[in-house]
Design a protein that fits this description.
Chain B: One of its GO terms (cellular component) is plasma membrane. Chain B: Its main location: membrane. Chain B: Residues 88-299 form the ABC transmembrane type-1 domain. The complex is a heterodimer of chains A (275) and B (310). Helix content of chain A is 81%, strand content 0%. With 275 residues, chain A is mainly α. With 310 residues, chain B is an all-alpha fold. Chain B has a single domain (72-309), classed as MetI-like fold (Orthogonal Bundle). Chain B contains 15 helices and 2 strands. A two-stranded antiparallel ribbon of chain B has the order 1-2. In chain B, a hairpin with a 4-residue loop joins β1 (60-62) and β2 (67-69). In chain B, α6 (120-132) crosses α9 and α14 (265-274) packs antiparallel against α15 (278-309). The chains are: A mainly alpha (275), B mainly alpha (310). Chains A and B meet through α1, α3, α4, α5 and α6 of A and α3, α6, α7, α9 and α12 of B.
Chain lengths: 275, 310
C-alpha cells in the first residue's frame, strides 16, 4: 500500500515536471521544423511537413550569413571573457582570502559593490567611445569581464578558504612565493571551482542579450542572442525560422549541460552557499 | 621646488634615501598586491569610472560628446514622467513576486529532489535546464504559449472550461505573467542552492526527530526549514537583486506594454537611451542605483543578522 502511494506520488511529480518544464521545449522544437504557414498558428499541432533542413538553411543564409558571423563573434566573446575572468578573479580572490588589512577591506567592498550596483550604461558607452572601443568586440569583452568578476571572485574565494595555509608555507620554504606560489601551487588546486566558474560564466556570457544590445549595435559585431532579436522583427511572420534560430543557438549551452550536468550543479552549490 | 629637498624634514617617517632599506620580507609577501592588478584595472576603468561619472552626467544634458550642466532637471523630468511611478512600483512588485516564488518553490522542489525519489536525477536535470537557455529565447517561446486564442496555456485552460485572459496584452496580468516566466526560468537555480543547503544538514538532526516519533512535517518544520536558512538567504539576495534590475525578459515579452503597464526602471532607462536622452537615461540609472542600494543593504543586514541567530 505504501509502495503504491509512493509510486503514484512519483508519477504525479514526473508528469508535472514534464508538463511544466518540457512542454515549452517541445513547442520550440515542433515549431522549428514546421513550414511557414503552419508555424504561424503557434499551436501545439504535429508538423504536417518536416522542414528541418530547409529551415536551417534559410536561417543560416538570412541577412548575408549574419548567424555564422554571430556564432564566431559569440565564440570569441565567450572564450576571451571567460579566460580573463577566470585568471583575474582567481588571482584577486587568492590575495583577498589570504591577506587581510585595509586594502583587503577595500577590495572586499568593491567585490560586493560589483554584485549589487547596476552598471551605469550610458557612461560606460561614453567611456568605451573615449577609449575607441565602442562597437568593438574587445570593448564588449572588457565589459563582460568587468561585470562578471565579482561573482567569480566570490566563488574562488570560498574555495580558496578551504585550502590550508600550511601548503603556502611549505611552498615558501621551497622558495616559491608570490605569482609563482599562485600559478604553480594554488591555481592547479582550484580545478573544481574553475570548472564551475568556466561553465556558469560561459553560459551567462553566451546568453547575454543586454550588453551586446547596448555596447555592440550593428550586424558586424552581432552576437547570437542579438540575431534572435533581429530575426524577431524581420521575420515577424516567419515563426518557423525564428524558432529554428532559437534551437540552433540553444545547442551550445545544451551540450555544456549534457557533458557537465553533474559538475555544474555540484560546483554551483558549493560556491552559492558559502559565498 | 628646491625648498622641498633642502628644507628640514617634517614629521616622522623614513628619509627618502632610506626607502629601499626596508626589510625584504615586507616587499616580498607571499601574497603580493600585484595579483590584484589585472582585475583592479579592468574593474576600476570599465565599471567604477562610469558608475562615479554617472553621478555627474545625470546632472547634465548630454550628447556623449557635449554635456551642459542642468542641475537636478533630469531627475525632475524623470520623476515627472507619468510612467515612472508605474515603473517604480512595477520594479518592486516584480522583484518581490519573483524572489518570493523562487524561495517557496525552490524550497519545495529542493525538499522533493533530496528525498528518495527514483527519478531524482532526471527531475533535477529537467528543473535546472531552463537556467541554461537564453532569456530571450525563453521570452519568445512563452510569448507564443501565452497568446490569448492560439496559445497552449489558454487552450489547456479551455479544456478545463476556463476562459483564460490575454496574459501579456491585459494591463492587469502582463507584469505578473512575465514574473511567472521569470520564476519558471530561474527556479532551477534556487532549487540547486536549496539542494546543497539541505544536503549539508547533518543527518543526526533527522534521526533525533525520528527517535522522538516526529512526522515528515516535523522534520520539515523543525529541521529543514530553519537549517536551510543560509540557502534562503542566498536565494533571496540573488533573485531580489536580479528582479530589481531585470530587463531582458520584460523587453522581449511586452516591451513594457500594454501602454506602460509593465515598464520597469530598467526598461524606461533603455527607452530613454534609445530616444537619445542620455542624461535622462543616466539619471534613471542613478535612481536605480539608489533604490537597489537602499533596499539591498538593509535587507542584507537583516537577513545576515538572522543567519547568525540560527
Amino acid at each position: 500500500m505504501r509502495a503504491l502511494k509512493k509510486l503514484s506520488a512519483e508519477t504525479i511529480a514526473f508528469v508535472l515536471a514534464t508538463v511544466i518544464f518540457l512542454v515549452p521545449f517541445s513547442f520550440m522544437l515542433l515549431t522549428a521544423v514546421k513550414d511557414q504557414a503552419q508555424a504561424a498558428d503557434l499551436d501545439f499541432a504535429w508538423p504536417g511537413e518536416w522542414r528541418i533542413v530547409e529551415n536551417v538553411i534559410a536561417v543560416v543564409e538570412a541577412r548575408d550569413y549574419v548567424l555564422l558571423r554571430a556564432f564566431v563573434n559569440s565564440t570569441i566573446l565567450t572564450v576571451a571573457s571567460v579566460a580573463l575572468i577566470v585568471i583575474f578573479a582567481a588571482m584577486a580572490a587568492f590575495v583577498l582570502q589570504r591577506r587581510a588589512g585595509a586594502i583587503g577591506k577595500v577590495a572586499n567592498f568593491l567585490v560586493l559593490s560589483g554584485l549589487i550596483i547596476p552598471p551605469a550604461i550610458v557612461p560606460t558607452i561614453w567611456l568605451l567611445q573615449t577609449l575607441g572601443l565602442f562597437k568593438t568586440l574587445p570593448g564588449l569583452i572588457l565589459v563582460e569581464v568587468a561585470f562578471g568578476l565579482s561573482y567569480a571572485v566570490l566563488l574562488f574565494r570560498a574555495f580558496i578558504a578551504a585550502i590550508p595555509r600550511e601548503l603556502d608555507e611549505a611552498a615558501q620554504i621551497d622558495g616559491c612565493s608570490g605569482p609563482a606560489l599562485f600559478f604553480r601551487v594554488i591555481f592547479p588546486l582550484l580545478r573544481p571551482v574553475t570548472i564551475t566558474v568556466i561553465l556558469t560564466t560561459s553560459v551567462a556570457v553566451f546568453n547575454d542579450f543586454v550588453n551586446p544590445l547596448y555596447f555592440t549595435p550593428g550586424d558586424d559585431n552581432a552576437t547570437v542572442q542579438v540575431t534572435l532579436y533581429n530575426f524577431q522583427s524581420q521575420y515577424s511572420t516567419q515563426w518557423n525560422l525564428l524558432f529554428t534560430d532559437i534551437v540552433l543557438i540553444t545547442i551550445p549551452p545544451l551540450l555544456a549541460f549534457v557533458f557537465f550536468n553533474r559538475k555544474i550543479v555540484a560546483g554551483m552549490t558549493a560556491g552559492a552557499i558559502k559565498g | 621646488m628646491t625648498k622641498q629637498q633642502t628644507g628640514p624634514r617634517m614629521g616622522p617617517g623614513a628619509a627618502p634615501g632610506q626607502r629601499h632599506t626596508r626589510p625584504a620580507a615586507r616587499h616580498r609577501s607571499a601574497y603580493p598586491y600585484a595579483l590584484y592588478l589585472p582585475a583592479a584595472v579592468v574593474y576600476l576603468v570599465i565599471f567604477l569610472v562610469p558608475t562615479v561619472t554617472a553621478f555627474y552626467f545625470a546632472l547634465t544634458r548630454w550628447t556623449l560628446f557635449d554635456s551642459t550642466f542642468v542641475g537636478l532637471d533630469n531627475f525632475r523630468d524623470f520623476l515627472a514622467e507619468q510612467n515612472l511611478r508605474i515603473g517604480f512600483a512595477n520594479t518592486i512588485v516584480y522583484a518581490v513576486v519573483t524572489s518570493g516564488l523562487k524561495v517557496v518553490l525552490g524550497l519545495l522542489l529542493g525538499v522533493l529532489l533530496t528525498s528518495r525519489l527514483r527519478l531524482r536525477g532526471f527531475l533535477r536535470s529537467v528543473v535546472f535546464f531552463p537556467v541554461l537557455v537564453s532569456t530571450v529565447a525563453v521570452g519568445i517561446t512563452f510569448s507564443a504559449l501565452l497568446r490569448p486564442d492560439t496559445g497552449l496555456v489558454n487552450k489547456a485552460l479551455a479544456l478545463a472550461g476556463i476562459d483564460g485572459p490575454d496574459w501579456l496584452g491585459d494591463a492587469n496580468t502582463a507584469l505578473l505573467s512575465v514574473a511567472a516566466v521569470d520564476v519558471w526560468k530561474g527556479v532551477g537555480l534556487a532549487t540547486v542552492i536549496y539542494i546543497a543547503g539541505i544536503m549539508s544538514i547533518p543527518r543526526d538532526y533527522y534521526q533525533a526527530v525520528a527517535v522522538d516519533g516526529g512526522t515528515a512535517w516535523h522534520r520539515f518544520r523543525h529541521v529543514t526549514l530553519p537549517l536551510s536558512w543560509p540557502a534562503t538567504y542566498s536565494v533571496i539576495i540573488l533573485s531580489f537583486i536580479g528582479g530589481l534590475r531585470s530587463f531582458d525578459l520584460i523587453w522581449t515579452m511586452t516591451r513594457g506594454g500594454p501602454g506602460f503597464t509593465s515598464d520597469t526602471i530598467a526598461s524606461i532607462i533603455y527607452k530613454q537611451y534609445q530616444a537619445g536622452f542620455f542624461g535622462l537615461s543616466t539619471a534613471g540609472n542613478v535612481l536605480l542605483f539608489i533604490i537597489v542600494t537602499a533596499i539591498v543593504l538593509p535587507l542584507n543586514y537583516v537577513l545576515g543578522k538572522r543567519q547568525v541567530a540560527v
